[in-house]
Amino acid sequence: MSGYRIHRPGERINRQKPVSFQFDNVQYKAFSGDTLASALLANGVRLIGRSFKYGRPRGIVGFGAEEPNALIQLETGAHTVPDLKATQVELYQGLLAGSTTGYPSLDFDLKGLLGKFGRFMPPGFYYKTFMEPVKAWPVYEKYIRKAAGYGHAPVLPDPESYDHLHHHIDVLVVGGGAAGLWAATLAGRAGLKTLLVDEQAEMGGWLLTERRSRIDGLSGMDWVSQRLAELASLPNVSVLPRTTAFALHDLNLVQAVELLQDHLPLTERNAALPRQRLHKIRAHQVILASGAIERPLVFGYNDVPGVMTAAAGHSYLNRYGVAVGREVLVQTQNDAAYEAALDLAQCGVKVMLADARQGGAAAWRQQALKSAGVELLLGHGIAKVLGDKSVSGAQLVKLDGRNNQVVGSGPRLSVDTVLSSGGLTSTVHLFCHNGGRPVWNQQQLSFVCPDEGRDNIACVGAITGRWELSEALGQTHAAVAALLLGHGRGSSGNAPSVASEEVAAPRAIFRLPDGKPEGHGAKAFVDYQNDVAAADIHTAIRENYRSIEHVKRYTALGFGTDQGKLSNINGFAIAAEALGKPIAEVGTTTYRPSYTPVTFGALAGPHVGETFDVRRYTAMHASHDARKAEYEVVGQWLRPWYFPKPGEDLHAAVNRECLATRNSVGVMDASTLGKIDVKGPDAREFLNRIYSNAWSKLDPGKCRYGLMLDENGMVMDDGVTACLADDHFHMTTTTGGAARVYSWLERWHQTEWPELKVRFTTTTDHWATVAVVGPDSRQVLQKLCTDIDFDKDAFKFMDGRSGTVAGLPARVFRISFSGELAYEINVDANYGRYMWEEVMKAGAAFNITPYGTETMHVLRAEKGFIIVGQDTDGSMSPNDLAMSWAVGMKKPFSFLGKRSLLRSHTAGDGRKQLVGLLPLDPKVVLAEGAQILSNTDDTVPAAMQGHVTSSYHSAFLGRSIAMAVLKDGSKREGDTVFVWAHGKSVPAQVVSSVFVDKEGVRQHA
Amino acid sequence: MANRYSLWSLIKNGLKHHESWQPAWKSPQPKKQYDVIIVGGGGHGLATAYYLAKEHGIKNVAVLEKGYLGGGNTARNTTIIRSNYLWDEAAHLYEHGLKLWEGLSQDLNFNVMFSQRGVMNVGHTLQDMRDIERRANANLLNGVDAVVMTPQEIKDMVPLIDISNRARYPIMGASFQPRGGVARHDAVAWGFARGASELGVDIIEQCEVTGLIIEGGRIKGVNTSRGDIMADRVGCVAAGNSSVLAKMAGLRLPLESHPLQAFVSESMKPCIDTVVMSNAVHGYVSQSDKGELVIGAGIDSYLGYGQRGSPHVIEHTAAAIIEMFPSFSRVRMNRQWGGIVDVSPDACPIISKTRIQGLYFNCGWGTGGFKATPGSGNVFAHTIAHDDPHPLNRAFSLDRFATGHLIDEHGAAAVAH
């Protein structure tokens, strides 16, 4: 038990609101305003997890997004979340959390035992072993997998929801610390539409911890309150706390995720509101004020629980009223950590400070510490930390002033906590997401964003390497004022006034030496989460993994869920030393989104479940429901598949529907066919180019079937297009292809033939289409419509007419996908259901029978009509489909695919062609997707001749039929082939693909 | 092998504080002249060099890489390996690769962690199921393992998948290739580099090819950022940048370079034991040995050489994963990235001689290159060594775009990963 509560003025917890919570089944008490991390520390809990590779005991190191160790499982059941950082979980009453590592327990971990052999597990050890015997790898791997991983994935569907919100604004400020607040204030005052986001619950950034600075005569947090009050008064400014900008994309599109309810007890969450919201922010100007994160120093056993960053120890004290230890050693190479030591000492903590610099900090700081009773050890570094599951002491060494070498032994201190500071690392991530490169600043010892930013991205404050508040605010003011002036927004007044203080330069030291060659002494961790020690980086480089990307990938440096926020610069520096190159030359690895992990649910937003993709229903859907239709998913549409009567299965229903349609009349909802209105003086020319067949001579009132080919000459869509007027066509497409065809038309028109005067309107949803099909269909139409002459010769096959059907204005096309006499009635979609029911009434006398897609498939297969996407697969030319009649090679202007059709293979022999198949046993329905062999005794690999595309029982013919594509099929009529599926083959005869009414008498009736 | 890896080598080196490890591959200065130059130090290029040396005895070879080894798509893919392609030519080529994968760790003495946990392609519509049947039957007849699964069998293998009708596009079945799986992508590049270097191949990093030296219709060498390097045979294996190289030779390749994105979750305990792919809802997922869900998306529509894509593609992919795995909604994305995929008109690679004597191209792998790494290098090495295609890549020559003899994998799998 080392951490304990201590009252601090200005602390951010509410002692009037105690809350209780559980960690690993133990009940604890803390306060509202705590994070899970501060609450655990206040309760003296140090051991939070086990390390990834060696199972070493680990505790909390940081206090925010940088935390590498404290990955916990939050809540249970449907609300569980794996791998949250305890430092980022806001505490609420009744919170349940648990550790994610340690087997069989956190306290006693088997991997920890294995980890004792860590010296035999260098970087890349997986690549060097587990290879023999060959068959054992799956067994090894099983245990490797079991040993890896932190939390458990939820197994129940997420009970909470997410949403998306778009912003189009002038200025986005990322980061609500001093710099961000001032930038937002200036932009807000200038009248710009401004959004300020910060990942924490409270604005203020480092001012939440640091209590000594005064800005314009106010304490830091009073100044923050003043800023927030002013921003709240500006109608053009919004401020979003708990909102992390996690990705910056091209053209200043920033994704940010807002945690709306994660801080509330499960029982108090509003189910009507989302849990999290993804903000998609398009800003003319992005101002990055994301600050900096303190990194630790690298020294022996710097991972023992109780070792943390100085900034973390400082923050737990001042923000949460938690002293992280009773006897604390602060190890630093810079001035800032003196502040943490001072505040701790003033709270009665016994503090010692070791400074790697011979001269230590600015004189006034040293004086302040001495006055507070802090023992100063200048020119000292920690060789190794003592203790196993908690710090018990530290062995120090004396350091050389210039080279990072040991010149003598130092004291062995008995302490319970070690805070270390290796300086600050600018939070440059967003700047780099879309191609920006950070630059190395040798004075500040960090990769920083350049002062000039990039086009429409400004960088202010600590992100540019200005660690001192006075400098950060000064630079912020100057940068934002210049921006506003550039936007013609006039003067911005004066920068906030902050006294500047004398600072001694930090020492360029990252790895504290212990007097031994690297790899011989205590492991000194660089990346805690991936168990990467300093020696591992040296080993990687020794093995010629010299690019920093190789170092990263070989050792896993920076690959964790903290994305290397603490480890990157230390790792780069150690690599630089091993390579004998300056850090600037080593460079950084690539910064990728997301800055901190983002819930899948937030990314998906509302596009889950029923709204994953729109579900489209036709206007007569309710009629189909009433008739108990079974449905098939076709593209986004739900289409009636068949209409079973009581006791009927699919086959019985389809047999009945087919016979009724062939013998009297059937009716089908054809509304889902894509419809595109093509209009303009060049409409006809456009059709000539986009379709393979000719459209020059199609008169108004006539329809024509058209094939659409891709550039490769292969069939991509088909449909009937009607000529309504010389410059006006009603195009239909396949159901699934409607959107694709529409964008295809637009693409060719906009990019290749903009000179053509034609426009396209998608009208699929405008029209409801009822197909009335069968010998009695004419009589049904005649009962419904008196102003169209349905006489055989007046209204011929492939004619179209406008008239009044059932009292509604309608377009009627005499077209057929069944080979029967058939009409398609198109009416305003709002009257679709009415029209359907009127047709049903008019057809009652003829036993009109509604049918679905399955019967449609059978009827068209009996006629050998293809379905694009079922009988074709993007590799079938018109010729392969025996549809050369639909290719106008003599058209004056080339059409899409024409040149490709002339290529030697495409025009030659040996291609697969559409045929019909009749199984020798007429009761056998061939499997769709079965492959065709010429011989039964073919061995693997077999010479496949083609495959079955469509196969049905035809009630009309009283036998099974199939369509197939077959190599040189057009020449093989009469052959017997063998149809193979899953090891069984069935003989079938190759026939014409037209099984019914080869002469077309019925559709011309 | 002087520097052989084994448990024993780990112990021996561990006792010596790991100070005695030899470089995995040597980094010599480039020579003036080689028998063969391979442009591109990704998995395919390194594999080509390895097989040139190992199987064809051509050891005076340089691999030129403008950045670091395996820094392109080798390092950016989702590591899926399978061979269940529809068309004969593609199935045979990828199956050749799969067979090489099956002994690769031992062959290279470098554990590439090839993990045959199976690859499942789920279907959501009647047409998906027809295509699955067709492909599975074709696979079986080509000697490629394939199983067609019912929804319940899928659920038994992948308990977290949703097979209910709650889904917008309920799962109707799947094809499954048990021998498919995943591997550790970086290790593949390093393993081939180490193997090639051991056989005498020079691996030259930080060496950008800036021009091709061509005289009288024959390749003579390359201009590089480290000076001219001569060779009578040059094999280009540069994925998204192939068109750029081809242009140096005055060739136009039928390739489009698109961004392709992927992302990983945070590391979790094992929760999904195979690879699940859905072309219909546009998402696929597996879990790495480290515990991260590795998730892939469809390609971005726009062309470009930026190794990053559009956020809406990632958002849609997350939605697709939740559609299949509703409980993953609360899992978090740790990191996303993009690569550049060079897509040919038929979604199949180009492994080919060119009209420049001695200049060869191996490109156009689109979204599916990683799985082919050893097979690709193997047949390309043969093509270069014999100045004549291996029987397995004869059909993948450039002239197929002139004759129309395409191998159209777009047809059966709109996204062929």
Report on the architecture of this protein:
The complex is a heterodimer of chains A (1005) and B (417). Chain A is of the alpha+beta class and 1005 residues long. Chain A folds into 7 domains: 4-133 and 139-147, Roll (Ubiquitin-like (UB roll)); 162-289 and 426-486, 3-Layer(bba) Sandwich (FAD/NAD(P)-binding domain); 295-422, FAD/NAD(P)-binding domain (3-Layer(bba) Sandwich); 524-611, Orthogonal Bundle (Arc Repressor Mutant, subunit A); 621-671 and 766-859, Probable tRNA modification gtpase trme, domain 1 (Gyrase A, domain 2), CATH 3.30.1360; 674-762, 2-Layer Sandwich (Alpha-Beta Plaits); 909-1005, Beta Barrel (Elongation Factor Tu (Ef-tu), domain 3), CATH 2.40.30.110. In chain A, 22% of the residues lie in helices and 28% in strands. Chain A is built from 25 helices and 52 strands. In chain A, strands 9, 10, 13, 14, 15, 16 and 30 form a 7-stranded mixed sheet that branches. In chain A, strand 39 (715-725) and strand 40 form a beta hairpin. In chain A, helix 7 (310-320) packs across helix 8 and helix 12 (534-542) packs across helix 13 (548-555). The longest helix of chain A is centred in the middle third of the chain and has 18 residues, at 469-486. The radius of gyration of chain A is 38 Å and the shape is elongated. The N and C termini of chain A lie far apart (95 Å). The model of chain A has no long low-confidence stretch (mean pLDDT 96). Chain B is an alpha/beta fold. Chain B folds into 2 domains: 28-79 and 185-254 and 346-413, FAD/NAD(P)-binding domain, CATH 3.50.50.60; 116-181 and 256-343, D-Amino Acid Oxidase, Chain A, domain 2, CATH 3.30.9.10. Chain B is 29% helix and 25% strand. Chain B is built from 12 helices and 18 strands. Chain B has helices at residues 7-15, 43-56, 88-101, 104-108, 126-141, 151-157, 185-198, 242-248, 311-324, 373-386, 400-403, 409-412; strands at 33-39, 61-64, 80-81, 119-123, 147-149, 173-177, 181-182, 202-204, 209-215, 218-224, 227-236, 256-267, 275-278, 283-287, 292-299, 332-343, 350-353, 359-363. In chain B, strands 1, 2, 8, 9, 10, 11, 17 and 18 form an 8-stranded mixed sheet that branches. In chain B, helix 2 runs parallel beside helix 7 (185-198), helix 2 (43-56) packs across helix 10 and helix 3 (88-101) packs across helix 10 (373-386). The longest helix of chain B has 16 residues, at 126-141. In chain B, 66% of the residues are buried. Strand 33 (598-599) of chain A pairs antiparallel with strand 16 of chain B.
